[in-house]
Amino acid sequence: MNILDKIIARKKEEVASAKAKKTIAELESSFSFERQTYALKDFLTDPSKTGIIAEFKRKSPSKGIINDKLSVQEVTTGYAAAGASALSVLTDRDFFMGHDDDLIAARKVNEIPILRKDFMIDEYQIIEAKALGADIVLLIAACLTPAEIRGFAKLAKSLGLSTLLEVHNKEELNRSLNPYLDVIGINNRNLKDFTVSIETSLSLAEIIPKEFLKISESAISNIETIKTLKKAGFNGFLIGENFMKTDNPGKAMTEFVKGI
Ligand SMILES: O=P(O)(O)OC[C@@H](O)[C@@H](O)c1c[nH]c2ccccc12
Predict the structure, then answer these.
(1) pLDDT tops 90 at residue 15
(2) Which residue has a Cα nearest atom 18 of ligand 1?
(3) Residue 242 Cβ contacting ligand 1 at under 6 Å
(4) How far is the CA of 245 from the centre of ligand 1 (A)?
């Protein structure tokens, strides 16, 4: 079993127990269902922002503990002050040391879109994302069928949520596009074996249809890479570790974006 299979197997158990604890009707009665969500594409194309989706990530299966000392409030407000177009908050507990409460806490103190970074395998989690205060859900093509991607993206849209579709190769891209999507993320990290290459983004950029915005995800640690990706037409950049590994991620991002 590769790591992605392990995560998905565990996720199925978690979703079953979450459903047993809270009904969909209860989720829908939460305060967050009232709020006006922020659209990812609007913030990615806002010239006063950096295009960076900055991630709060304590730990990952590939790197182990990255930083478990800082609060989600201080990190995410630091990112927003540094010009983040959006925030990414991990809610997976077992593999990333994240928590639903991290998203709730980030929502209270930020006014930019927030991505619920998790492994979505059930419609329940999309509704839960809305209840937690998220604006964006991640759909990972490597662990979903085209029909699931379409159905989940349609549901997300009906809730006012943006969808970030994550692909890692041409085959995933070609089978997963549908009219409910507007932003495509190319993950430079292979979730099955953790190998990373920026080439993954560069080679797939050309075959993404023009109507979609493009984001490059993972393993971005220098400004030259951002410049190269921008030239290739990328509108956004998902960055976690490069900032999280420091004592002050917001400050690290402020320094980083000076070079853009
Ligand atoms: O920390 P990095 O290398 O900058 O990567 C951030 C982000 O792209 C990565 O955390 C990520 C991309 N896709 C995912 C899917 C699930 C969990 C995590 C991820």
Answers:
(1) yes
(2) 117
(3) yes
(4) 14
- Residue extents of the structural domains in the chain: 3-257
Helix, strand, coil % over all residues of the chain, rounded to 5: 45, 15, 40
CATH class of the 3-257 domain in this structure: alpha beta
Segments in 87-193 forming alpha helices (H): 100-109, 123-132, 146-158, 170-176
* Tens digits of residue pLDDT in 163-211: 999 999 999 999 999 999 999 999 999 988 889 999 999 999 999 999 9
At residue 193, the pLDDT reads 87
Whole-number Å distance, alpha carbon 234 to ligand 1 midpoint, is 17
218 Cα: distance to centroid of ligand 1 (angstroms): 5
Compute φ and ψ for 116, nearest 5 degrees.
-80, 105
Q: At residue 128, what is the residue type?
A: E
Hey, which bits of the chain come out as E strands?
Answer: 52-56, 59-60, 64-65, 86-90, 114-117, 136-140, 162-167, 183-187, 213-217, 236-239
175: left (phi over 0), alpha (psi -120 to 50) or beta: alpha
Q: What is the pLDDT of residues 202-239, one digit of tens each?
A: 999 999 999 999 999 999 999 999 999 999 999 999 99
